[in-house]
Design a protein that fits this description.
Layout (H helix, E strand, L loop, with lengths): L1 H4 L13 H19 L2 E10 L5 E12 L3 E3 L1 H11 L2 H21 L6 E5 L2 H6 L2 H12 L6 E6 H6 L1 H13 L3 E7 L5 H7 L4 E4 L11 H16 L3 E4 L5 H9 L4 E2 L10 H13 L1
Parallel strand pairs: 2-4, 4-5, 5-6, 6-7, 7-8, 8-9
Antiparallel strand pairs: 1-2, 1-9, 2-3
The chain binds ligand C2E and magnesium ion (MG) (3 copies).
The site of one magnesium ion has 4 residues, from loops.
Protein name: EAL domain-containing protein
Organism: Simplicispira hankyongi
GO biological process, one term: regulation of DNA-templated transcription
Length: about 280
């Protein structure tokens, strides 16, 4: 069977293998090829100050430029990358590429923004993240204090002791840490108190129905107030309308991301946004 052949070998589908399992194997084989052939890309989405309207950061978002299928979204391949362990080399590539790009923009005088990189829970378990981050910073020359790692609540909840030890070491490097998709995981409040977190990212599901949903306005207001009283910055994800931005401004939210300002874009298009800002 495929298993006996080992990783990296050609896979022969076993009889009786489910359609889902075949698809996973195909995606996994494709991902190995993508990594080897340089088919992975980073897109960048601006993080914008609510008060000034200026771009203060970027989030790096992974894409797979498949020669046959075109641009593949991370929702389709991150889960396979995680279960196969490929997330470790992929995550290492993402960290280095994001730091190299951010440092190129700094050197070109395009601003001193932060670069935010998503880190998956399995990357914690599989690789020495402190070493991987240290290498990316050393190779790129990008300052640790401008790099932000985005970690989901579930990663904090799954193995809190390991996560605390790791995040403390990363924080000691000078990095910023943010909690992604905040409000959708468990034990948020207990973890927020214990972990060396700098930023809460309000999940886009709480922003989407503002201003129609009174509940979502109440939840978002509460997250902003709680974050601020704990000394954290708060960013709102998925901001699509001027009404949503007005609401966030009234509540004193620090920054936002969303289609209202820009979709995630390739590096050359992001650079145009930075140059326009410099000119304007
Ligand atoms: P995330 O980190 O929460 O990223 C935000 C997602 O919301 C992105 O989807 C972005 O394109 C989308 N988005 C941004 N603004 C809006 C908006 O106004 N409206 C709507 N409807 N969506 C908006 P994307 O790029 O498809 O990424 C999905 C998820 O995949 C990410 O969620 C993150 O969890 C994961 N991901 C992406 N890149 C990486 C990576 O390099 N490593 C890891 N481990 N995970 C990644
Ligand atoms: Mg994120
Ligand atoms: Mg810190
Ligand atoms: Mg999110």
């Amino acid at each position: 069977g495929a298993k006996a052949l080992g990783r990296g070998a050609w896979c022969f589908y076993e009889e009786g293998m489910t359609q889902g399992a075949r698809e996973r194997l195909a995606v996994e084989a494709g991902l190995r090829r993508a990594l080897a052939n340089g088919e992975l890309r980073l897109y960048y989405q601006p993080q914008v100050s609510v008060a000034s309207g200026r771009i203060v950061g970027a989030e790096a978002l992974l894409r797979w430029q498949d020669p046959q299928e075109g641009l593949v979204s991370p929702a389709r391949f991150i889960p396979v990358a995680e279960s196969s362990g490929l997330i470790a080399p992929i995550g290492q590539w993402v960290l280095l590429e994001a730091c190299l790009q951010a440092q190129r923009w700094r050197s070109a005088g395009l601003g001193s923004m932060t670069m935010a990189v998503n880190v998956s829970p399995r990357q914690f378990a599989l690789s020495d993240l402190v070493a991987v981050v240290g290498d990316a910073l050393a190779q790129s020359g990008f300052p640790a204090t401008s790099l932000e790692l985005e970690i989901t609540e579930s990663a904090l909840a799954e193995r809190p002791e390991q996560a605390l030890a790791l995040l403390t070491k990363l924080g000691d490097l000078g990095l910023r840490l943010s909690v992604d998709d905040f409000g959708t995981g468990y034990s948020s409040l207990a973890h927020i108190k214990r972990f060396p977190i700098d930023v809460l990212k309000i999940d886009q599901s709480f922003i989407r129905e503002i201003p129609e949903s009174g509940e979502d306005m109440a939840i978002s207001s509460a997250i902003i107030a709680m974050g601020h009283s704990l000394g954290l910055a708060v960013l709102a994800e998925g901001v699509e309308t001027p009404a949503q931005l007005d609401f966030l401004r009234q509540r004193g939210c620090d920054s936002y991301q969303g289609y209202l300002r820009s979709r995630p874009v390739p590096p050359d298009a992001f650079e145009v946004l930075l140059r326009d800002q410099l000119a304007g």
